[in-house]
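User: Show me a protein chain along with its predicted structure.
Assistant: Here is one chain, sequence first, then structure tokens.
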Amino acid sequence: MTLKLCVAQRNFIVGDLDGNAQKIITAAQQAYADGARLLLTPELSICGYAAEDLFLRPAFIHACDDAVKRVAHALAGLKDMTVVVGHPTGGDSRTRSVAVQQRFNAASVLCEGRVVATCTKHELPNYQVFDERRYFTPGDGACVFEAGAPGQRVRVGLLICEDAWFEQPARLAKEAGAQLLAVINASPFHVGKGYEREEMMRQRVLETSLPLVYAHLVGGQDEVVFEGHSFALDSDGTVAGRAPSFKENSFVALVESTQATMKIIAKVEPVRTPEQDLWDALVLGVRDYVGKNGFPGAILGLSGGIDSALVLTIAVDALGADKVRTVMMPSPYTADISWLDAREMAQRMGVRYDEISIVPEFEAFKASLAGEFAGRAEDTTEENIQARIRGTLLMALSNKFGSIVLTTGNKSEMATGYCTLYGDMAGGFAVIKDLAKTLVFKMAHWRNANDPYGTGASPIPERIITRPPSAELRPDQKDQDSLPPYEVLDAIIDRYMENDQSMATIVAAGFAQADVEKVTRLIKLNEYKRRQAPVGIRVTHRSFGKDWRYPITNHFRA
């Protein structure tokens, strides 16, 4: 017997219940017309992931329940068609101080207008960006349903995301009679995560000897990105199918079974490089943040440096040159090569480019403050004034024309506070907030060697990549005047911030104690800045955002 199934790898929008329901209905109708009799949608597909404190609002849960009913009613005429829909359900008893939760992260199995089964998620993740124990109650038991036309029916064990990372839920499904495991997911991207998932699901397959289909979400949602990359594994753990990454797709698989074996036949997309995944994640993150929030375009300050050059390239790949505007804002310390490189960069990308000198404003600020600052030497105060003038100009253009300001700071700067509050941190979306400086250079080289979106080969002038980084806020300034070499800085950040290694462990690994003490001290001191930074795209397993929750007032020093 043969069951044709389809994974609706779709870009659902948080809170757009009508739009999400219609996407599911359309996908089911198309899949049915193509001969499929089982459609899998991602985790919480009705409401989008993650809806955060919307889950606490009874009206939201009721609206989700109604949306599931609308989907079931709309598909009632599809004979023998089974559709799995992810949604929240339940209620709670709450006062201003106490909430007794009875909400579940659930999936309903719809067939011919009825809900024939509902599965609730057992394992609620509460680490990294996940916060599900705030909203949901753990479910229990196994959920096994039949799908397919009469004589072709397959018993499917349904698991919701985190449940498949543990042995028991899959084992319970097999004990309940499952012949195939279906896992619906909304698992945020970080570099390498897609193949980690394949390996973890391979463990479930080998433990149960059951084939598995993994249905995953695609799209950007605030600071997280979902990459799609749905897949199927045969009962021996081999990859039987893999969907494209970072794009919507109807991933089709044929499940062929005999009394002795069950085999999955599907198209297998090739393995991708980490750089491909990272670039596509950044592009999708920008496109969806700008598009889903209704901004007509983006604007950024183009300095002639590597960070703004990379952000510009990502923005054009995401939005198109016609929706991106750049502004060069030279100060008394801006080198001529910065003007030249910025102009060339904008020309290569085909974007609007304007130059607005900040010299008059800078002189006016200094004149206004001259009495207050009398007798004091210039220092970072004057440097920060320049950055804040630029931030003010960009925000004024944003207010006037509606385009969102893309900030250009990287993870190394966010970690150490090498950025100006209300200056270069001013803006609406921090595109490379989770890219260390060394990774910024690596991705600039990669993009110059690749043109994945057809917006132009070698967009970044070579001198931008090779010249020493500088904020250009004082004469002959270089980043390394204030910071260790980026290779050292980023390695310490990776060990301390991303992997929680102690200072002693980092020093024992060969790093100079003075560098370790300086970097970790800067990370601690600049928490107050990071709390006021714009949201940005998460691409590592630990970013400065939901992954990082340290107190600002903090006297602990390891």
